[in-house]
Structures are given as C-alpha cells and as structure tokens.
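Field reference: sequence -> structure
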Amino acid sequence: MSAVEIIALAASFSLLSGWRLYFTLLVTGLAMHFGLIALPEKLAMLDVLANPWVMVVATLGFIAELFADKIAWIDSIWDGLHTAIRPLGGALLALAIVDPGQAEWQVITFLLGGGAALLSHGVKASTRAVVNTSPEPFSNVAVSAGEDVAVAGVAGLALAFPMAAMVIAVAMVIASIICLAALRRVLRRMFGAATERQKNGGA
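Structure field:
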C-alpha cells in the first residue's frame, strides 16, 4: 500500500470504530495476523491487536454489541458507556496502521483517529436516541442491521480499496447526519400532532 492508501485505511477504520468498535478491532487484528496490514516497526507494541487473546475478547465484545445494539434504549446505554472507549479505540487503530515516524506525528495521528471515531460515535448515538423515541420496535432493529451490513462492507472494502472505503465512510457520516436531522423533524411533527389531539380532546 502507498502512504496515501495507508492513511485512507486508518481513517476508514477510525470512523468505523465509532459504529462498531469491537468488530473493527477484530478485523484489524485478523488483518495484521495474516499480513494484510503491515505493522510499523516503531509501533511494534501494537501487535497486541493481533494477539489471539485480544481477538477473543474483541469477538466477545462484538457479539455483545451485536445484540445490545438491537434493543431499544439498551443501545443508548451501551453507546453512553462507550463514549470514551470508542474514540480511544479509533485513536489506537490509527496508530496501529499508520507509521507516523516522529513523535509529533504520532500525537497528530492519535488525535485525528480519536476525533474521527468520536464524530461517528456521536452521530450514531444521536441517531439511535432519536430512533428509540419511535413507538414501534422494528425501526431500531432495521437501523442496527443496516449499520452491521454497512460497517462490514466498508471494512472489507478498506482492505482491498482503501481510498474508495474512506470516501464511503465519510459519506456514511454525512448521510447519518442528514438522516438524524430528518428523523428529528418527523418525530417533532408526530409528537406535535399527538399533543394537539390531546388538547383538542381535553377541550
């Protein structure tokens, strides 16, 4: 991979960790284990991501997240607990993939990776909180399943075509923000209409 492709791969995985941290950690560990991602020599300590025990823990976290994310309000509690964990995971993923060379670039890479994960986590958590206000339970499962498919697809694409994956990951963030705004408008109208009916009924 070229330097630009490696940066694109790191950016994609950092953004994806804001949606599915444990899955992204597992994919990164497996990719490092099988040599699909070459670990920078200056950051060899991060080969811990390819450690079998770490991958087992990541697998267990992925399974727990897979189910917790599909239960209304449990998903928001889960998101709240991971507000600090996901950005840290995204920052470590960026460090594990990119060889910054100098200490100042290590700090910049760490901050950018954490910032990308925090951005996608914030959009995800906000969107799910809005979806949870819906009176029916199926929208929550549908949104979660859509995230599962999208994250898995982009992660696989990132290993083969990093630049394309980065564009799609950024587009996912933008699309999520647009959907969040639309959901808020729809729910505001729904609750406004319900409140108006209650007032008219009370009169």
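Note: Residues 3-202 form one domain.
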